[in-house]
């Protein structure tokens, strides 16, 4: 069997989609399933491929979405995994729906990761692997072609194999991760506040990529900082970094799942109104401190929230315990089993 994976990575959409697909590809390769990636040629900048991220998989570049039909094979299952349901490619739901219909017309078996929203899911297997996804639909609207909920969340092996966070009385090791690309510059916003904290802090700053100009901007902010810090860029040891921290300051992206899996007490913000809606579901299930949409969070409110969680060891222990209960880490195997069912 061959698995084609259609996914992109960019500053706009981030790197979470392609990292998820890499985990799936590695899992499938270990089960003798051939995998290849398909990326769309970027018109704005250099196309980011799986090779750019250090992965050893074949990949192809297409100019238009319809070019994917050239990869159809007459001698094997044409299983196509889509992780592209984002506004940078499809401006409305109808165009995305038409694209899936186009793929099925050309005999592809379509498995798709979908956004956290209620919509008509027309793939052969549609996955919304987020906390609260099943609550988007009424019981009669859920079919066997839908995998809904955090039990289908895909974690990389580095997270599954990582030691969990140990809660200490003195919380001084701080993670700042606002997603791989952080186009809204939230990293700078919260670092500017943290440098004003009077007690000692050791800050780990994580980004997937960073320009020289942006690095200089961050270093300028940190020039006023009296503690210690390390800037990690494109670091594969992010699970290790998280497991050695005491408090996380994170955004509403997929990082919230990875910190929860390892039991890190976090202060979170939503990037925008759309993310805020999904965070409400997440916060109902996961014990996490959420401050709201970042643009509305003042420095004073953030510092007060940070001080409270830093000084409250019992609250951090409670968050740690509740987070560790939530995920079993078997999302990949469950997705794999469901894919085999639709092929048989």
Please tell me what the overall shape is. Answer: globular
Name the helicity range. 25-40%
Strand content: 15-25%
Largest sheet, spatial ordering of strands:
3-2-1-4-5-6-7
Q: How would you classify the helix and strand content by structural class?
A: alpha/beta
N to C succession of SSEs: EHEEEHEEEHEHEHEHEHEHEHHH
Number of E strands: 13
Rg of Cα set: 21 Å
Distance between the termini: 12 Å
Task: Show unreliable segments.
Answer: none
- What does the main sheet amount to? 7 strands, parallel
Average pLDDT number: 91
Count of helical segments?
A: 11
Can you walk me through this structure?
With 344 residues, the chain is α/β, with parallel strands linked by helices. The chain is built from 11 helices and 13 strands. The protein has helices at 16-29, 93-105, 157-160, 186-194, 212-222, 238-243, 255-262, 273-285, 299-311, 313-324, 331-343; strands spanning 2-7, 34-40, 58-62, 78-83, 109-113, 125-128, 146-148, 173-177, 202-207, 228-233, 247-250, 266-270, 289-293. The protein has a 7-stranded parallel sheet with strand order 3-2-1-4-5-6-7, sandwiched between helices. β11, α7 (255-262) and β12 (266-270) form a beta-alpha-beta unit. α4 runs parallel beside α5 and α4 crosses α9. The longest helix has 14 residues, at 16-29. It is globular and about 65 Å long. The two termini are 12 Å apart. The model has no long low-confidence stretch (mean pLDDT 91).
């Amino acid at each position: 069997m061959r698995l084609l994976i259609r996914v992109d990575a960019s500053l706009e959409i981030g790197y979470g989609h392609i990292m998820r697909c890499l985990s799936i590809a590695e899992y499938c390769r270990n089960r003798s399933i051939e995998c290849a990636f398909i990326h769309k040629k970027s018109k704005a900048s250099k196309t980011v491929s799986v090779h750019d991220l250090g992965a050893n998989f074949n990949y192809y570049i297409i100019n238009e979405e319809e070019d994917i039909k050239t990869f159809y094979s007459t001698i094997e299952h044409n299983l196509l995994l889509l992780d592209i349901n984002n506004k940078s490619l499809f401006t409305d739901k109808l165009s995305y729906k038409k694209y899936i219909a186009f793929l099925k017309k050309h005999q592809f078996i379509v498995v798709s990761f979908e956004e956290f929203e209620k919509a008509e899911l027309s793939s052969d297997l549609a996955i919304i692997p987020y906390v609260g996804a099943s609550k988007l639909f009424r019981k009669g609207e859920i079919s066997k072609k839908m995998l809904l909920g955090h039990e289908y969340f895909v974690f990389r092996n580095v997270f599954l194999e990582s030691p969990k966070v140990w809660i200490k009385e003195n919380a001084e090791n701080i993670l700042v991760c606002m997603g791989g690309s952080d186009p809204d510059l939230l990293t700078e916003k919260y670092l500017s506040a943290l440098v004003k904290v009077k007690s000692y802090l050791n800050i780990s700053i994580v980004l997937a990529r960073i320009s020289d100009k942006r690095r200089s901007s961050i270093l300028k902010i940190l020039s006023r900082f009296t503690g210690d810090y390390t800037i990690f860029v494109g670091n594969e040891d992010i699970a290790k970094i998280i497991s050695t921290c005491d408090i996380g300051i994170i955004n509403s992206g997929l990082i919230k799942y990875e910190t929860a899996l390892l039991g890190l007490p976090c202060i979170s913000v939503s990037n925008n109104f759309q993310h805020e809606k999904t965070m409400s579901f997440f916060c109902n299930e996961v014990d996490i401190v959420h401050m709201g949409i970042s643009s509305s969070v003042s420095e004073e409110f953030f510092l007060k929230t940070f001080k409270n969680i830093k000084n409250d060891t019992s609250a951090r222990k409670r968050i740690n315990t509740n987070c560790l209960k939530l995920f079993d880490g078997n999302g990949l195997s469950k997705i794999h089993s469901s894919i085999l069912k639709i092929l048989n």
